[in-house]
Design a protein that fits this description.
Layout: E1 7-12, E2 18-21, E3 27-32, H1 37-46, H2 48-59, E4 70-73, E5 76-82, E6 90-93, E7 98-101, H3 108-134, E8 141-144, E9 151-153, E10 159-162, H4 170-182, H5 191-200, H6 204-214
Parallel strand pairs: 1-3, 5-7, 8-10
Antiparallel strand pairs: 2-3, 4-5, 6-7, 9-10
């Protein structure tokens, strides 16, 4: 069977075959060295519905397109201007959606470090506020660089949040914080968890829908 152009066959020293569907529509088929063409055909036939479901999911996603001099912050596009008068500061104008600084915030590494610092300040303060308001107790908060998780809560009640959340709207940030705070009481995503979440954050589905649609842009 001839594989379509968007399929990439990769042979590795692994025990089990794996499939990966990317948001660009590429399907990577990772197989053991001993796999035959018949094995590949059988695998793809078995997983066809799973492949189609994931392709449909990524196709339904939208991207937040930024111009070359724009930075995504709190779900909004901010225009960056180089300004030599602000050597040690970054001036953020939320009303006019502008960012002025001498440092090159269009450089990927510099921008990530700056956004991580902003995330650490905002997420720490907001987690403390929501925990106090909703009567939740947690031990420590960590700001992580994660690719596949927005947040996590350990059994020890330590919460981790993804720094990329600082690019999302405030209502999405609050939802993720409340979600992880609730895990200090209910660890699993049971019916009880979702019922309690609705009582603490009634509009949680709007936040989930936003993440499903635009999360790949963060």
């Amino acid at each position: 069977m001839q594989l379509p152009d968007n399929y990439i066959l990769i042979q590795r020293d692994v025990k089990h075959a794996r499939l990966r569907v990317s948001e660009d529509g590429c399907i990577r088929v990772i197989i053991p060295q001993v796999f035959t063409q018949e094995d590949v055909n059988a695998l793809l036939k078995k997983k066809q519905r799973w492949i189609d479901r994931n392709l449909k999911f990524f196709k339904g996603m939208s991207r937040i397109n930024l111009q070359r001099n724009q930075i995504l912050l709190y779900g909004n596009r901010y225009t960056y201007f180089y300004d030599s008068t602000h050597e040690h500061k970054v001036i953020v104008d939320h009303e006019h959606k502008t960012i002025r600084a001498k440092r090159n915030l269009l450089d990927k590494a510099v921008q990530q470090q700056w956004l991580t610092d902003i995330a650490r300040k905002h997420l720490t303060k907001r987690t403390e506020e929501l925990a106090s308001k909703l009567k939740f107790d947690y031990k420590k908060l960590f700001i992580r660089n994660q690719r596949k998780k927005w947040g996590n809560c350990s059994k020890e009640k330590n919460i981790s949040l993804n720094w990329r959340l600082i690019k999302a709207p405030l209502f999405v940030i609050d939802y993720l914080i409340v979600h992880e705070l609730l895990h200090t009481v209910v660890m699993n995503h049971t019916h009880k968890f979702w019922t309690m979440l609705k009582s603490y954050y009634p509009d949680y589905k709007d936040a989930i829908n936003w993440l499903d649609k635009y999360g790949n842009s963060l």
